Structures are given as C-alpha cells and as structure tokens.
Amino acid sequence: PSCKHCKMADLFRSLLIVVMVCLTTAAVQPCFTELNGTRVLDRTCERIISMFREEERTPFIEFLLHPPKIYIERVGEGHPRHTCMDNVEQTLTTLKGTISYTTQYTWKFAAEIMIPDYLERTSWVTTDPTEADFILLDACLVSIRFSGFGQVEKLRPHIRANPLLERLFQEDSRRFIMTLTYDRGPCSHEDATGSSDPAKVRQHLQNLVGNATIFENHSDRTSRCYDPSKDVAIPTTTSIGLEDEPGRADPSNVRRRHDVFFSGVPSNVLRTQIMQRFGSLPGYYMPSKIPHNEYNAALADSIFCLAPRGAALWSPRLDEAFKMGCIPVVIATHYDMPFNDLLNPTDYSIQIDAEKYLELPAILKQVSQERREELLRNVDRVKMAFRYPSLGSTESSMNAVILAVYQAWRRRQPGNQV
Prior knowledge:
Elements lengths: L2 H17 L12 E4 L2 E4 L1 H7 L4 H12 L4 E5 L6 H13 L7 H8 L2 H9 L14 E5 L10 H12 L2 H9 L4 E4 L18 H12 L3 E4 L15 E2 L24 E4 L7 H10 L5 E2 L6 H9 L1 E7 L8 H8 L2 E5 L18 E3 L7 H6 L3 H14 L17 H12 L7
Parallel strand pairs: 3-4, 4-5, 5-6, 6-7, 8-9, 8-10, 10-11, 11-12
Antiparallel strand pairs: 1-2
C-alpha cells in the first residue's frame, strides 16, 4: 500500500481505539456497529471516509462521536405521512415494467419521508426542541402534489402556530431543516411573486423560511432558491435499501455490451442534441424509451451512463448509475453534486460542462482502460453514500441521511460556510 493508505490505516486504528465504548442504548448508532459488547466504526463508513476530501475526515469523526441532537416535528393535520409511506412501499414492491409518471415522482422524491423515518430510530433524536441542534420538519408534500413555494407555504404556518417553535425560529432559523424536493426544489415553475427578478424571488423565499437549512435536489448555483452556504444537495431516492440491486454490475467487469448508455425523454435541448448527434455512434446505446427492467439491465451492461440535465439542472441518472454500477457522466453547468464538499466528483464520475457537450465522444475516448477500472471501483465504494435506508431500517451503515445531516452540521460550524 502507498504511504497515503498507510496513514489512512493508522488513522482508522486510532479512531477505533477512541470509539470503542460500551453500548448503552438500543437506538441505531449511525456508522457504528456492535462487536463483543462494544461499538466500532462500521466498515461501509470506513470505506467512504477513506474517499473523503482530507480536510473533512477528522471533522466527520468528531461529528459521529458527538452527534447533533435532532427534534422531529411532524407537520400536517392528521399527519398524512403513513399514506405517503404506503405510496413509497407500494412503488418499491410493484416496480416492474414501465413506470408511470406519477409513480416515478413518488419514487424519486421520497426523501421527505425517508430522512425522518431513519432519524427517528437513531440515538440522535431528542424529544425536547429547546435542546436540539436541529429541528427537522417532517412533512409529506410532493406525494400529495405540493411543489415549489406551495411546499414552503405549508410549513411556515405550522411553525407560526406553535409559540415555542416560532420563538426558536426567530432566535435561529438555521436550526430548522426542511426537505423540499421536486424539480426545482422550493422554487415553483411559475414565480409565486409574479416576478422573474431573481432578487425578489429569493427575498420572497427568505420571508417564508428565513435562513432555514433546505435539503433539496435542485442544487443549481445560479438558482434563486438554493444557497450553498446553508442548503444541502441531496441525492434522489432512486436507490432505497442498503443491499445491492438485483443485476447490478460487477465492478471488476469492464467488458460490457455498451460503451455509453442514455435513455430518456427530450425534456431539454441538451438531451435532444445528445441523442441526435451521438445516438448512432458505435458503442453508444440511446433508445428513446424502454421498460424499466430493460433500462436497469442496460445501465449495468454499460461502462459510461450519461446524466445530462433535464427539466431542471440535476438528474436522477446520477443515482441510477450508482445503483446499477456504471460510471456517471454528468453534463451540466453550475451544478453542485450531492456531498461534493466531502467527495471529489472526479474520483467517481466524468464531469463535462454543458456548453462543451460536443466534446463528449472525444473526452470519453481519452479515458484509459486503467482509469475506467479505477472509476468503476470507486463507484462501487461510494454507492452507499447515495442510498437511503429502507423504511423501518435499523441499519447503521453509511447512507445519504447521515451525510446530509453532517453537511448541515458542518455548515453551522464557525468559519465553515461554503
């Protein structure tokens, strides 16, 4: 092993000595597992921490040793989350053939359900909002057709109606976490302010949520509704469950049927141009529409899987590539990939500016066989970071929820705003 790897091994040995303390609770201890009555760092966490940017490794261990306290506030009359959870469970158990438009959205935007579902079983939860480092608003919004500012407008009145929460919000709104997914996160397709002025739209959002931390998919640095100094880019819920997907590619297999794969609706000019210009190239497979099971099989049988922007800047094809084990090729501009503060995207993906999409074939051709093998190994190593635990899971393995909370915590540390 290289000196770098030796140093990492020494670091982990030291950390294991520090964290081997007796278990005192039956609650899930994220990133720790029990061994002979003591807790040690989970192997999946160890693998992903080893790929962190060097400056983030020690703070993450400190975060695990002294995790934040999280209060979960359920929002909604009669709390419809059980209905939303039923929708997600039904989607997961009947995911065969062609997915309907409605099912796709329930499937991709379930983070608002998956995040509180996992956290409420961890040792991080408190029942006292006054002692909480974070107050997570647990609300089912996308599944019952709320999007954009409509999401926020369901959350803010709930806070105002609770004198204690309103006081805490006024004291420090950044303690509050809102999970606002959908194509453009908390921004609507139509400006709720009646204005296309970005400054006015941002001010309208701030009037609604203050400086609350927003977990969102739409991490566009030019967006009116994404602030990288406080908000957190999260993966879609394309991958739910910490076990490998059936048919997932073996990372050591570099002999696959297709060099490059993409399939999707032409929801953006960029997608249309890519399919028209490159769809007939040798080694490129770009059907306009195929059944879901064939789609997954094509992902697993390709080296590179394209993730060009669609209706919004981000694309669930990034997460689908991790799910099935091919190298994601992200084609976008001003895009913050999930957890890019922690993981360097060039370690496990190919990054192409949307304005340079014509260079795609030349760029991929230049990727050596050795580099392809390295990228495929790294995709396999980081896949857990882009997955959500199953509903009701008591797994302590690394997952997207742990990293999302860490990034929110990290942004609140003095001098660490992005």
